[in-house]
Structure formats: C-alpha cells, structure tokens
Amino acid sequence: MPRKIAIGSTDGVNIDTHFGKTEVFHIYEIPGDGEAGEPVLVEKRVVRQKTADACSHADIGGIIEKLGDTEAVLVSHIGNHAAGLLAAEGITSVAVSCSVERAVKRYAKRGRLLQPSVPEHDDEYSPKREDCPMRAMKQNILSLDA
Predict the structure, then answer these.
(1) Region 20-28 average pLDDT
(2) Residues facing residue 44 across a β-bridge
(3) Which of 14, 59, 102, 144 has a CB 3.0–4.6 Å from the CB of 55, allowing a cystine?
(4) Alpha-carbon 12 to chain mean position
(5) Which residue has the higher pLDDT, 7 or 112?
(6) 146 within domain boundaries
(7) Residue 31 domain flag
(8) Which helix (H) or strand (E) holds 66?
(9) CATH number of 30's domain
(10) Beta-carbon neighbour count of residue 121 at 10 Å?
(11) 145 within some domain
C-alpha cells in the first residue's frame, strides 16, 4: 500500500521552509514495501493562510491534523514543540537541506526515515526527558548521504 510524506517547500524544488511557517505542503505518495513505482506528487495541501505572523503553538495542532495521513514531514527546520507533537501522532519529522527530488528519492529508496529531527533545546519536548516521544528517534538516525 502506498505511503504519503509531506514536503515543506515554497517552490516545489527545494526543501526550504520552517514547519511553523509552511503554508503549503507538497504531498508525495511513495510505493509501499515490495511495490514497484516512483514517488509521485499527488497534492499541494494548504495548511495555513498566508500571513506575516509566526505560527502559534495552538496553530501547530491544526497543521498536524491536516497532515495526519502522512508518515513523515520533511522541512528545513522544526522546533521542539512541533516535532514532539508530530512524534506523538506517529509522524516522523525530518529536518533536511536539499532538493525535494533528492529527499523524496532517498526516502523512497530506503522506505523509512532519513534523519529525524532531534532538537537540542531543553524544554517540554526535549530528548533529554525520559517521557519525550522523540527519544526513540535517536536510535534510527540515518544520514541523507548514506
């Protein structure tokens, strides 16, 4: 069964947006394990309206709800709060700086996580806390260049 990933990009070419500032996510369908095929852009999903204001913590919940059918979110940057909330919903967050094409192909090739976002800040979702849903992600870190 195909899987979906969400890519934060302003132009569809480069992963160049911070999770909380992304207005439109490019949704790609990735072939499931053992399935033939290439990743396909299936949708450009609007998650927030154009605004100069930064996204509040309350807004993040709405964005995550709109991405609930994806298994991973690839963006250029993501904060602890958003990464923790995504992880709690079973969605992997990945901070990368490369082209959309490269990231999608690498993700499809491996069929799993490229490099999870594990923020270093010590707040309510810090990996230093025992109850942080992101702690387990440290075990799965893979390099994008591997």
Answers:
(1) 94
(2) 26
(3) 59
(4) 15
(5) 7
(6) no
(7) yes
(8) helix 57-66
(9) 3.30.420.130
(10) 12
(11) no
Q: Which two tokens stand for residue 39?
A: 């990743």
Contact present, 134 and 114 (Cβ < 8 Å): no
C-alpha span between 122 and 101 (Å, rounded): 33
Q: How confident is the model at residue 2 (pLDDT cuts 50, 70, 90)?
A: confident
Question: Tell me: the pLDDT tens digits for 64-105?
Answer: 999 999 999 999 999 888 999 999 999 999 898 899 999 998
Average of pLDDT values for 119-142? 44
Residue numbers of the domain that contains 111: 3-140
Q: What is the chain's length?
A: 146
Residue-wise pLDDT tens digits, 26-42: 999 998 777 778 899 99
Distances in Å between the Cα of 91 and the Cα atoms of 17, 49, 98, 141 are 18, 22, 20, 15
Mean pLDDT of the chain: 77
Q: Return the bridge partners of 24, or none.
A: 46
Q: What is the dihedral of CA 98, 145, 71, 141, to 10 degrees?
A: -120
Contact 95, 79 (CB under 8 A): no
Does residue 114 lie in a domain region?
yes
Instruction: Say how many domains are in the chain.
Output: 1
